[in-house]
């Protein structure tokens, strides 16, 4: 063994020891190669070889144009969340009055200097912004005609529809061109789907806890939400759903079967089949929220509900907001037998989604780098979720429970005792830390002792400080152990 090899192996062992003793926790971004060179007094070449060795051993992973991150460990987490109701007793359908409250939470969460743990957006450095800019430049140069298109004539650009068809075919879905409608993000997609299948004062079954903007949407459309208890492991309780549809006619069931928000659950294949069978038996449509489906952590991609034999009654909604850029506002609805109605409403309500952006996204997808980007992104988000989990369990009150997400980049946290996280929100903002209170994920205000944390940003020392501040805030509440 020569002197050079001894140097980089010695450095690798030292860094490995720091990782194993949680000096660098899972998800942390290591100092830059230059910084490590200065700290440890080794050449840049030696540091790079040491990092390569740690990557081979599974301790770190590189992220293009960002640096090296400590790899998530495979050991299971303790204190997993049990917040989903043990009983399948159902509350009656409720009307919602949450829009103004949620708007205030979102506005406060995005203030300058506030740790970005509230709104669920990924860090910009993890997104392929430079490549997207090149796609925009190519389209602007080669397709000036896109600036002249009428806004209410044809919502879809054929290039993007073709790329979506090819992606969905790999997932076992052969969708016809006229089944797809391109939308302004997933929010509009969900809104169009709901307006197609439900009328004023209808009841729609929703996951509980469930996505707060979806609850806002239900409120704005004059619908009533029927909360179906969901678990962090398997998602919506199908036993509870069947009890509900026997007692109450529902206009639709809205479900996020892959990487649900806020729990990160993935519905097993057997449950997906049962849900489709229930929809067939009791004759209700399913609105499938597919927005996080590209960000699963498991080895194999879960099969969408839309790919089942009853897929014609599924309106699958999704977007590229979580994987490419939230600014794109490019989503879709695969409407099945409701496609013509979805298209009609899209034309009337908003017309065409930006054609230049549609073709730019199609150009990016055609280049073939999306799947490579997704593989890296999934690994990074899993690492960040695990790192955030470790910090929460370290700094939050004893008895705190957390979800163990199987996809996405949010973490659901259940605090012990009689803590009202909505009431404490402004005190957290004063400490420059944001979160989303658990009560906004329920139509009837459940989960007051819960929060959702955004894990879309690399975990750094600043993140650890922010989590420690939250932990101290919750620890000082007199009823946290009640």
Automatic annotation (TrEMBL):
Domain of life, per lineage: Bacteria
Keyword Transcription: yes
Keyword set, alphabetical order: Aminotransferase, DNA-binding, Pyridoxal phosphate, Transcription, Transcription regulation, Transferase
InterPro entries: Aminotransferase_I/II_large, HTH_trans_reg/aminotransferase, PyrdxlP-dep_Trfase, PyrdxlP-dep_Trfase_major, PyrdxlP-dep_Trfase_small, Tscrpt_reg_HTH_GntR, WH-like_DNA-bd_sf, WH_DNA-bd_sf
Ranges where the HTH gntR-type domain occurs: 5-73
Gene3D superfamilies associated with the record: Aspartate Aminotransferase, domain 1, Type I PLP-dependent aspartate aminotransferase-like (Major domain), Winged helix-like DNA-binding domain superfamily/Winged helix DNA-binding domain
Pfam families registered for this protein in UniProt: Aminotran_1_2 (PF00155), GntR (PF00392)
Transcription regulation keyword on record: yes
Any coiled-coil regions, as ranges: none
GO molecular function, one term: transaminase activity
Family from the record: In the C-terminal section; belongs to the class-I pyridoxal-phosphate-dependent aminotransferase family.
PANTHER family reported in the protein's UniProt record: HTH-TYPE TRANSCRIPTIONAL REGULATORY PROTEIN GABR, TRANSCRIPTIONAL REGULATORY PROTEIN
Name of this chain's protein: PLP-dependent aminotransferase family protein
């Amino acid at each position: 063994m020569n002197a050079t090899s001894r140097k980089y192996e010695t450095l690798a062992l030292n860094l490995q020891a720091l990782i194993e003793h949680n000096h660098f926790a899972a998800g942390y971004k290591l100092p830059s190669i230059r910084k490590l060179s200065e700290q440890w007094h080794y050449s840049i070449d030696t540091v790079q070889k040491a990092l390569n060795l740690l990557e081979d051993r599974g301790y770190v992973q590189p992220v293009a144009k960002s640096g090296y991150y400590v790899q998530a460990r495979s050991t299971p987490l303790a204190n997993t969340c049990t917040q989903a109701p043990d009983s399948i007793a159902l509350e009656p359908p409720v009307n919602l009055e949450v829009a103004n409250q949620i708007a205030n939470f979102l506005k406060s969460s995005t203030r300058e200097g506030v740790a970005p743990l509230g709104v669920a957006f990924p860090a910009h450095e993890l997104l392929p912004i430079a490549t997207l800019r090149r796609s925009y430049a190519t389209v602007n140069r080669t397709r000036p005609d896109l600036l002249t298109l009428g806004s209410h004539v044809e919502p879809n650009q054929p290039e993007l529809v073709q790329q979506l068809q090819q992606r969905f075919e790999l997932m076992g879905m052969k969708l016809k061109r006229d089944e797809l409608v391109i939308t302004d993000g997933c929010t509009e997609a969900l809104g169009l789907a709901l307006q197609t299948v439900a009328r004023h004062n209808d009841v729609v079954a929703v996951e509980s806890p469930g996505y707060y903007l979806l609850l806002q949407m239900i409120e704005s459309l004059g619908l009533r939400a029927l909360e179906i208890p969901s678990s962090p492991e398997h998602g919506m309780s199908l036993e509870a759903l069947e009890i509900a549809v026997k007692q109450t006619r529902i206009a639709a069931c809205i479900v996020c079967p892959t990487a649900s928000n806020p729990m990160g659950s993935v519905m097993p294949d057997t449950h997906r089949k049962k849900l489709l069978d229930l929809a067939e038996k009791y004759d209700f449509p399913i609105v499938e929220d597919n927005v996080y489906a590209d960000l699963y952590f498991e080895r194999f991609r879960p099969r969408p509900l839309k790919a089942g034999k009853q897929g014609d009654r599924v309106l699958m909604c999704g977007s590229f907001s979580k994987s490419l850029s939230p600014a794109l506002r490019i989503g879709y609805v695969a409407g099945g037998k409701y496609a013509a109605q979805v298209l009609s409403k899209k034309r009337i309500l908003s017309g065409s989604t930006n054609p230049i952006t549609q073709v730019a996204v199609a150009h990016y997808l055609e280049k073939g780098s999306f799947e490579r980007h997704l593989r890296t992104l999934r690994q990074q988000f899993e690492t960040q979720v695990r790192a955030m989990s470790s910090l929460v369990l370290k700094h939050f009150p004893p008895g705190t429970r957390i979800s163990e997400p199987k996809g996405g980049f949010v973490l659901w946290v259940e605090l012990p005792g009689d803590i009202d996280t909505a009431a404490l929100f402004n005190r957290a903002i004063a400490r420059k830390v944001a979160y989303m209170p658990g009560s906004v994920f329920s139509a009837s205000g459940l989960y007051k002792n819960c929060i959702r944390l955004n894990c879309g940003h690399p975990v750094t020392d600043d993140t650890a400080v922010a989590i420690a501040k939250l932990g101290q805030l919750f620890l000082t509440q007199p009823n946290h152990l009640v």
